[in-house]
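Let's do one together. I've listed all components of the complex below, 484 residues spread over two lines.
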Amino acid sequence: MNPLTISALTTHIVSLFERDETLRDVWVTGEVSSWKRAASGHIYFSLKDSSATINAVMWRGSAQAQAWLPRAGDQVLAHGYVGVYPERGAYQLYVNQVRPAGRGQLYAQFEALKRRLAEAGLFDEERKRPIPAQPRRIGVVTSADAAALRDILRVLSQRWPLVDVVVFPTLVQGSEAPGQIEGALATANYYDAAVEPLDVIILARGGGSIEDLWAFNDERVAQAVADSVVPVICGVGHETDFTIADFVADLRASTPSAAAAAAVPDRAEAAEGLAAARRWLASQAQARLEAERVRLGQLLQRLERTHPQRRLDLQRQRLDERQARLHRTMDRLLERESASVLAARQRLDALNPTGVLSRGYSIVRNEAGQVITAPDQVAPGDPLRVHAAGGEYGVTVER
Amino acid sequence: MDESSATYPEDLTYEAALEQLEQIIASLESGDLPLEEALARYEEGAALAAFCEQKLDEAELRVRKWRPGDAVEGETVEFHEWEED
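Okay, and this is what the predicted structure of the assembly comes out as:
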């Protein structure tokens, strides 16, 4: 007899498990019971059917990678390997993937939660707050590096770049997503709440399978949306996807882009409105001025008929006319006078002795200067002076 | 009467300017303002509309990202990655 130690035997058993094709890589189906998450993050549970049970463990890393995690009583498909836990001499299923066994079960869960929350009043229309027409600050709760975020920011930038956006990154799928979304929504609500709280929060995730979107069917997320003081617009998945978060949100949009579009006004529309306002102002100003001009014109007419200045002006006009007539009369008189002066002057010129001399006549004077007009005034030998047009000369009387 | 010559405080927001514009239009619609005051308001309204249009044209989306802090408080940092295509 050559006895084996317990350790040696256990090592042998482990090697048998490891060599077995089925135990190394297996899908099993069964019902979850005694689901327990340890402080370490590892999850301990069992899977059973009507006649058998197996202990199972899912390490923290695997648990975080799951889009969906079951609860006790759920039917699941689980993948992993069967191994030995030597200290207890037990074998167990080491699970690295878990899915609902058939989507029927997911829908059943979804419907059950939806019914419960509806009864609790979380979907009531009266609870829904209006989305502000012109938000200044928008919070976006989504994955920081997904296409959904880029879509949202692009739409906001095109439609209404006047807003400030704060992104609150969170996982949007996997077992940790609901807790993170809950936390991100709370942070967004606290963000600058005392100074300038956010006007609206967009909660979004791009399209995916029902399992991918499952975080948005989590009760914690639903409650966080309901508890949000800031109005929430939910845009998860595609047009046909409805999540619990959609029902609780103040506004449901079909996609992340649609959520962004619903959050802000349209810049083009606003510009049109402003242009219309400017046209209205201009036409009103014009109309007002025109009305004032007409009124002023009417007043002036009335004023002119009654003002004393009007009579003064009339008198002045008459005076002006009379002055003009006076001037014309005087001018005529002066003309007439100057004509008679001219005639007198011509007559005078004819009488001017100098004029006579120029025609060849001469004036003869004696030495005494007397003008000689008859022969008896002179004697032969008398010196006389002849005054002609060109000058004077002396002559002597002969006989 | 050059609208663009109207100056506004730097911190006047689009929303505040739009509200002023709406008030001016309402006061003009209700009528009965003296001519000079009405004309001043038409002008002011046109300037405000131009200011708003300018704000719409010039605005650029400002994006920040929340970064949880070591302590309870976090902070936001500029976020530009989305702009790269």
